Amino acid sequence: MPKRVNSERMNLKTSADKGADIARQVVLPFRKSLEISFQSIRVRFFRSMITTMSLVLAVSFLSFVRVNADLANGMLQTQDAQLYQALVRAGYDLEPGATSAGSSAKERWIVFLSLLVCVVGIVNAQLMAVTERFREIGTIKCLGALDSFVLRLFVLEAGMQGLAGASGGALLGGGAALLSGLIRFGFTAWKHLSWLAVGKSVVFAASIGCILSLLGVLYPAIVAARMHPVEAMRVEH
């Protein structure tokens, strides 16, 4: 009976010690994680730029297609036969009496393929980044970093790159579409344009870019987070 009591006391003491260790665990604030992620991007600036540029190109094309459709829709809403003929001559596939113009099947496929290639490029670049940072990941995990902290670092890096690349690409594509409409149709295209629709198209394209950037980094981030510190420190470059 005394042995059983002593065993229970030891179990309680062990549980209390574990609880104390957890209570003493240092948790870095979100701001510090953001700072570490930003510094990591600065160190790997050129590689980050290459990854971001692929996102810029894909999102800019998506934004260009949508804003082009907004320009055509604004002109069609006037029910002007001359503007309708101008759109047909410009290559828009319109039915007689159409009041809206969408993107063609070819454009949709090109957009889809460009976004798919962009995601594959992001996954590949992030996997290479994980390979290069084996020792760094192992070091911070040996110092007590949790899997969630490593995952947060990679997601924050991808989020910052995605926000910058997607925003720049959406604005670039939207501006190119507006300039193209001005050259082809003159100020008439801008006169009947719904700027609210243009804003929605740009925001939509930027949002898609951010989502794709986060999706692309998800698998590499999980790989980095689940890495054992000993195995990471053993890797030779």
Could you explain how this protein is built, in words?
- The protein has one domain.
- α2 crosses α7 and α3 runs antiparallel to α5.
- The N and C termini lie far apart (58 Å).
- It is elongated, with a radius of gyration of 26 Å.
- It is mainly α and 237 residues long.
- The N terminus is likely disordered.
Q: Top keywords for this entry?
A:
single chain, 83% helix, 237 residues
Summarize the structure.
This protein has 237 residues and is mainly alpha-helical. Helices cover 83% and strands 0% of the residues.
Kindly state the number of beta strands: 0
Straight-line distance between termini: 58 Å
Order of helices and strands: HHHHHHHHHH
Helical content class: over 70%
The largest sheet is: none
Note the quaternary state here. Answer: single chain
Q: Please compute the radius of gyration using only Cα atoms.
A: 26 Å
Total domain count: 1
Q: How many alpha or pi helices?
A: 10
**Based on CA inertia axes, which overall geometry fits?**
elongated
Low-confidence stretches: 1-26
Beta-strand percentage? under 5%
Overall mean pLDDT score?
77
The secondary structure category is mainly alpha
What is the element layout, followed by pairings?
Blueprint: H1 2-24, H2 30-43, H3 45-76, H4 81-89, H5 105-132, H6 134-142, H7 147-185, H8 187-191, H9 195-225, H10 229-234
Helix pairs in contact: 2-7, 3-5, 3-7, 3-9, 5-9, 7-9
